[in-house]
Please model this.
Amino acid sequence: MGRITGSAIGILFVFWASAVFAGTISVGAVTPLTGKLAVYGEGFQQAMLLAAEEINAAGGINGDTLEIVFEDNNSTSKGSVSAIRKLITIDKLSVVFGPAASSNFLAICPIAQKNKTILIGAESAAADITKCGSYVFRVFPSDLLQGIGVSELTTALGYKEVVLTYVNNDWGVGLAEVFKEKFTASGGKIIDELAHAEGKTDYRSEIFRIKRHNPKAVVNLTYIKEGATILKQAYETGLDVQWLMGSAAKSPKLVTLAGKATEGIIGTYPTFSQDSPVLQAFKAAWEKKYPGKKTPIFGEYNYDMVKLAALALKDAGSADADGVKASLMKVSQGYMGTTGDKSFDEKGDVGATYGRWTVKDGAITDYR
Model:
C-alpha cells in the first residue's frame, strides 16, 4: 500500500509498531484540546491514542502504520470548521474523527459530506446528525434513544410534573424536544421550560425561576461544568428537588466540582456489559498506559471508533473514501466493541440500551 501522509500543523502523534512497515495511513481528528470542552478532550485523545497504539502493535493497517493527526477546535463550531478544512484540503485525509458537542459536529458534517470525506463521531448525539448524509457515521447513540430513556426514568420514579431545563445548543434542544414529546405523550406535564446558556458561572436567575414553581423534580439536560454550577448554586439557595440528568453529566468531575450538591441525583446513560472480555481488556490496557487515571467519560466510544475505522481501512485495502464507507457498513455488522454492538444502520447510526446512574456517598454508581 502506498504512503498516505498529511502535514502536521496541529498536534501529531505517530506510532511505529515495526521498522518494516511500508508506509503510513493518516486519519484526522477534530478534538477539543483547549476551550470549554477541554475537560473532555484530553480523555478522548488518550483513548484514541491507546487504540492506535494497539492497532500498530498488532501489525497496523495491512502492514502500514496508523497515524492520527489531531487538530484542536478550541471547543467551538468555528474552530471545528477550520480544523476539518485543514485536514481535508491541506492534509488530504479521507477519514476524520468528528468533534464533541453536537453543534460542533453539525457545523462540519455538511463539509465532510460535500467533500466525500468519512466523518465518524464518538460523542455527538443530536437527532439531526442522522440527516448529515451517507459519509457520516457515529458509534454513539442518537438522542432519539436517550430522550426516551430520560422520559421513562422520570415516569418510573413517579414524577408526573417536572420543570425542564437544558443547555441551549443543538444537543440540548434536540434532547429536550424528544424528552418533551415522550413525557407528555405518556401523561406527564412540564410545569416550566427554560434553556440555559453554555459556559456561564452564575445560574441563580434560572434557579430562582425554578424555585418559584416548588417542583418535586427537575430534568436538567446539560454538561459537566454547567451541571456542576447549577447543582452547587441550587444547593446554596436551598432548592430541594430531585435532579434528573442525562449521560453528558455522568462523570467523577461533576462530583469533584459540585461536591455534596450532587448527592442523590439520578440520570440515564447508554449502557453496555461491564463483564465483556473486550471491555476488561480495554480497562487493563488503560491502566497500564495511564496508571491511576480513571477512564474518561465517553473514552470507550473513542476507543471503539478508532478500532472500527481501522478494520474498515484494512478491509477496503486503501483510504479511498467510498471504499472505506462500504467497508464500515460491512465490518460493523455484529462488531462487538467495548460499548457493545456497533452495527451501523442505513443512516450510520447505532442502537443502544439505557442504564441509570446516581451519586451515592460521593461516588457515581448504578441506580437500582
Summary: Confidence is low (pLDDT under 50) at residues 1-21.
